[in-house]
Every structure is written in structure tokens, then in C-alpha cells.
Amino acid sequence: MTRIEPIVLTIDRWLSALLDALVIGLAGLLLLLLNWAVFARFVLNDSVSWGEELPAHLLAMLTFIGAAYLTRTNEHLGFDAVLRIMPPGMMRVVTALNLVLMGVFGAMLAYYGGIAAASFGARSLISVDAPMALFRGAMPFGGALITLFCMVRFVGIVTGRIDPLDLLPESDA
After folding, report:
1. Which residues have CB under 8 Å from 50's CB, separation 6+?
2. Are 111 and 143 in contact (CB under 8 A)?
3. How far apart are CA 68 and CA 110, in angstroms?
4. Which residues of the chain have pLDDT under 70?
5. What is the distance between the alpha carbons of residues 30 and 65, in angstroms, rounded to a whole number?
6. Residue spans per domain, the chain
7. CB neighbours (10 Å) of residue 154?
8. Measured between alpha carbons, how far is 4 from 129 in angstroms, rounded to an integer?
């Protein structure tokens, strides 16, 4: 075990815990806000001003952070049936290529998402006094995490520390 490996494993555990908390927190907050908006409108007969705008922005945040979460947990969309029937050497090459492509996508998402988030400057949401950059910042954050996860796994695949089968989702069989 190299000296950097324990550091990478510690960072990985912290990032996993952070992503777990963010995804659960955002999904829970979204659930509460949507239920309150419906309750206020149909039971109290008093619509909330943020009933559409805030949940839409939270859903966008959940989408990008959730994409990083799914990349971390190997549950993202993929065609693993073809990969499972390949010989081990070919499986390693295809997995490495897939990680490179996903990493490039994540990097582009981080870069262009950062530009988009910065373009909102100090503007706030219309219905609540919350900065739009906070919500738009989820795009570069998610993209950066996707890139980071793919880079670490790429190194693991290339060095042989990670078996390509370990990166496949659980079998349905």
C-alpha cells in the first residue's frame, strides 16, 4: 500500500458521507416543501409564493449532486450486460475508456456549469431571498465530483488495484 492510498481512502469516505447527507437532505427538503405547498394551497386555501420556483431549483441541485452520487455508487446508467461477457483484458480497456469519457463529461459539466453559475452573479430567486449562484453551483460541484471519482477509478483500473467487475452494479439475477 502506497502512502497516498490511505489519504485517498479517507477522502473517499468523507466524500461518500457528504454525498449521502446532501442527497438525503435535498430529497427530504424537497419532499417537505412540496407537501407544504400542496397543503397550504388546498387545505389552508393560501398559496405560498415559493411553491414552484424553490422546489424547481432544489430539484436541479438534486439532479447534479445525485449524478455524482450515482457515479460514486456505480448505479449510473450503463450497459453492463455487454461488459460482463467480455474477456478480462478487454473489460479493463473498455472500463478505462468509459471512465475517461465520463471524466471528460464531468470536467465539461464543471467548467461550463461554473461559467453558468458565475453568470448569475448576485441575483436572487424571485420568491425568496436566496442567491441563484447557490443553486446553480450544484452543476460545477457535481461535475467536479464526477471527474474526481472517474480519475481515481481510472488510476485503480490501470494499476490493477480495482477489478472492472467491482464497478458494475449488482446483478439482477
Report:
1. 33, 37, 125, 127, 128
2. yes
3. 11
4. 1, 170-173
5. 14
6. 4-167
7. 19
8. 43
